[in-house]
Amino acid sequence: GQSLEQPSEVTAVEGAIVQINCTYQTSGFYGLSWYQQHDGGAPTFLSYNALDGLEETGRFSSFLSRSDSYGYLLLQELQMKDSASYFCAVRRNRDDKIIFGKGTRLHILP
Amino acid sequence: SAVISQKPSRDICQRGTSLTIQCQVDSQVTMMFWYRQQPGQSLTLIATANQGSEATYESGFVIDKFPISRPNLTFSTLTVSNMSPEDSSIYLCSGGTAARTDTQYFGPGTRLTVL
Fold this sequence. Notes:
Chain A is an all-beta fold. In chain A, strands 2, 4, 5, 9, 10 and 11 form a six-stranded mixed beta sheet that branches. In chain A, a hairpin with a 4-residue loop joins strand 7 and strand 8. Chain A is globular, with a radius of gyration of 13 Å. The mean pLDDT of chain A is 92. Chain B has no helices and eleven strands. Classes of the chains: A mainly beta, B mainly beta. The interface between A and B is medium-sized, with 23 and 22 residues.
């Protein structure tokens, strides 16, 4: 089966950089996705990595190492509006459904 | 990105009643899913809504409790039947494409409280 591990909470200071890690176990791997969810809001897609390396989109970057079954989401120049939960997700091998990690709650201090 | 709308946004229901949640997606979406999320928790897949046929349910979810319809490509409903307080949760509709199921777009969710 598939499983994902990510920290439950991370705290950082406004303007700083924070990294949210995700390790996964899966019998077949297609790629790692990241979603952001603000309190009371819907999850929104942030990024997807199918190949090793770093993908950058503005202040957000996502990294994947397939050999280590590991990825991370990097948020730079943190803003208070980045306070949210962040979920990593993988595609389930047997039927392509998405399986989400338990989520990391990011707290940003002024 | 796809546009997903969902209604109602919230409801408070009595034990033993049923609630039907509607989800409308735009034409970019070919696959539709229903999730449940307890506050502060992860998303749990309930089922895949299949156009014109029975939904595909995940382990722990059954059609009698969560009947799902998808009469056409862009519309689906989820009914929470014979509700109990344990059904209080946020129900989310999502859509994706067969080519990129890794990228899903979510509706705003329905916050259900069962008394």
